From TrEMBL:
InterPro entries xrefs: UDP-glycosyltransf_plant, UDP_glucos_trans, UDP_glycos_trans_CS
Enzyme Commission number, as recorded: 2.4.1.-
Sections of the chain in a coiled coil: none
Lineage: Eukaryota, Viridiplantae, Streptophyta, Embryophyta, Tracheophyta
Name assigned to this protein: Glycosyltransferase
Gene3D superfamilies per UniProt: Glycogen Phosphorylase B
Length: 452
C-alpha cells in the first residue's frame, strides 16, 4: 500500500441494497489502491463475491448474526424476514458491538463507514478512528426525511430552509414516513428516527453517491443542519458486468424490435398487494408493447403465477413475461430492445437507469422512493410518475398505460422533453474523467478529515 493509501472498515445495514452499495464504493476505493475490510453476514458472502472486483484489496470479514428472540434462526438480511421484523435485525446488529470493537482494535483503520449502527461513531471516537455515515439514499431524501415530527401531516411539506424543489409528499406517503420514523426499536426503546438522527449527528462526516450538479443544494442544506462535511463521491457507477445475459432472457428480448420492450423491476424487497400487482401487469398489457416484469409475488401469494389475472397468461403469451425470481437488471436495461424502465425508484436502480437509454416510468413505494421520484420527475425532468390516489396511494391500469405510452411514443411533447433531458444527464454522467475526478476529490477530502 502507498504512503497515502487508506484503511477502511465497512459495516453496512444487512440489506442487499445497502451491502451492494457499500461494495460498489469499496471497489472504487480499491481501484485507487486503498485497503477495505468488509464486515458482512457469513452466508451472504457467496452472493457478493461476484461484485468484489479487487479481492486482493477488499477482504470480506464474515460474522455470525446474533440470535434475538423472535428473529427466525439463520436470518441474516432483510431478504430473510418481513418488514415488521427489521427492528429485530437492527437489534441483532447492535449486539455485535463487542465483536466490531475487537475488529477495529485489531485492524486500526483510518475510517469506519456505516449507516444504521448509531453506536459506531462513539466507539470509533474512543479508538481514534473517524466515522463516516455513508448514505445509500440521496441527499434530497436525507434532507427531507431526517426529522422527528409530531404528526404525519408535517411531512406533506419540506422542512424550513429546504431548497426550492418540486419535492413534497402525498398524504399516504407522509403517513408511511411517520409510521416508519416512529417504529419502536427493539431492545433500546428509541424510535427509528432517533436512531438515524443520532447516526447523522454523531459521525465525523456524511457521504453520498451523487454530484453537485444534481444535488449540491441539498448538501448545503444538510451541512447547515448537521454542522459537518457532506462529501460527494460522484456517480459511483457500477462497473459493466463481466457476465453475459442469461440465454433465456437474451433470446426472449432479441425477438423484439429496438426500444420496444417495457422492463419492470421493483428491487429485492418491494411486494405489492394482489389487486395492485394485477393492475400493474394489466396496464402493461393495455399498452400493446411487449413487456418483461421481474416482480416478487404479491402479498399473500407464494408465486407470481398464482396471482396472474384470469386469462392473462394466454393473452400475453407471445409478448409478455412475468418472472418471480432475480434477473440481471443492469444487462437487461442495456439490451437494445428495452425502451422503457418501470421502476420503484430505489436510488441504486435509478443510478443504473440514468446511464442507459430506456425511458423512465416512476412508480415509488415507500421510504425515500417518493422523494427520488419527485427529484427525477419534477426537478430533473428525466421521467414521468404514475398517478396515485392522494389518500389511498392506489394506481390504475389506465394510469400505468397512459404514462408508458407518453414516454414511449414519439408524438408527445412531455415524452420529447424527458427524452432530451435524460440524454443530457446520461451524457454528463458518462463524461470521460467525471467519475474519476469526483472520486479523487472525495478521497482528498477524507484525507483532510484525518488532519483534524
Amino acid at each position: 500500500m502507498g504512503e497515502n493509501s487508506l484503511k477502511i472498515v465497512m459495516y453496512p445495514w444487512f440489506a442487499m441494497g445497502h451491502l451492494t452499495a457499500f461494495l460498489h464504493i469499496s471497489d472504487k476505493f480499491a481501484e485507487k489502491g486503498h485497503k477495505i475490510f468488509f464486515i458482512l453476514p457469513t452466508k451472504t458472502q457467496s452472493k457478493l463475491d461476484q461484485f468484489n472486483l479487487h479481492p486482493n484489496l477488499i477482504k470480506f470479514i464474515p460474522i455470525t448474526v446474533p440470535q434475538v428472540d423472535g428473529l427466525p434462526d439463520g436470518s441474516e438480511t432483510t431478504a430473510d424476514v418481513p418488514f415488521p421484523m427489521y427492528s429485530l435485525l437492527r437489534h441483532a446488529m447492535d449486539l455485535t458491538e463487542p465483536v466490531i470493537e475487537g475488529f477495529l482494535r485489531e485492524l486500526k483503520p483510518h475510517f469506519v463507514f456505516f449507516d444504521f449502527t448509531h453506536w459506531l461513531p462513539a466507539l470509533a471516537r474512543r479508538l481514534g478512528i473517524k466515522s463516516v455515515h455513508y448514505c445509500t439514499i440521496s441527499p434530497a431524501s436525507v434532507a427531507y426525511l431526517f426529522r422527528d415530527e409530531p404528526a404525519a401531516d408535517a411531512f406533506l411539506e419540506p422542512p424550513p430552509g429546504f431548497p426550492p424543489s418540486a419535492i413534497s409528499l402525498h398524504k399516504h406517503e407522509a403517513r408511511g414516513v411517520d409510521w416508519i420514523n416512529n417504529i419502536k426499536e427493539f431492545g433500546n426503546g428509541m424510535k427509528f428516527v432517533q436512531r438515524v438522527l443520532m447516526a447523522a449527528e454523531e459521525c465525523d462526516a456524511m457521504c453520498f453517491k451523487s454530484c453537485n450538479e444534481m444535488e449540491g443544494r441539498f448538501c448545503e442544506f444538510l451541512e447547515k443542519k448537521f454542522k459537518k462535511p457532506m462529501i460527494l463521491a460522484g456517480p459511483v457507477l457500477p462497473e459493466p458486468p463481466t457476465s453475459m445475459l442469461d440465454e433465456k432472457w437474451a433470446k426472449w428480448l432479441d425477438q423484439f424490435k429496438a426500444k420496444s420492450v417495457i422492463f419492470c423491476s421493483f428491487g429485492s424487497e418491494a411486494r405489492l398487494e394482489r389487486d395492485q400487482f394485477q393492475e400493474l401487469i394489466l396496464g402493461f398489457e393495455l399498452t400493446g408493447f411487449p413487456f418483461l416484469a421481474a416482480l416478487k409475488p404479491p402479498i399473500g401469494a407464494e408465486t407470481v403465477e398464482e396471482a396472474l389475472p384470469e386469462g392473462f397468461k394466454k393473452r400475453s403469451a407471445e409478448r409478455g413475461a412475468v418472472h418471480g425470481g432475480w434477473v440481471q437488471q443492469q444487462l437487461i436495461l442495456s439490451h437494445p430492445s428495452v425502451g422503457c424502465f418501470v421502476t420503484h425508484c430505489g436510488w441504486g436502480s435509478l443510478s443504473e437507469a440514468m446511464v442507459n437509454e430506456c425511458q423512465l416510468v416512476l412508480l415509488p413505494h415507500v421510504g425515500d422512493q417518493p422523494i427520488n421520484a419527485r427529484l427525477m420527475g419534477g426537478d430533473l425532468k428525466v421521467g414521468v410518475e404514475v398517478e396515485k390516489g392522494d389518500e389511498d396511494g392506489l394506481f390504475t391500469r389506465e394510469g400505468v398505460m397512459n404514462v408508458i405510452r407518453l414516454v414511449m411514443e414519439d408524438g408527445s411533447e412531455i415524452g420529447k422533453e424527458i427524452r432530451t433531458k435524460h440524454a443530457e444527464w446520461r451524457e454528463f454522467l458518462l463524461r470521460e474523467g467525471l467519475e474519476s475526478s469526483y472520486f479523487d476529490d472525495f478521497v482528498h477530502r477524507l484525507q483532510r478529515l484525518l488532519e483534524h
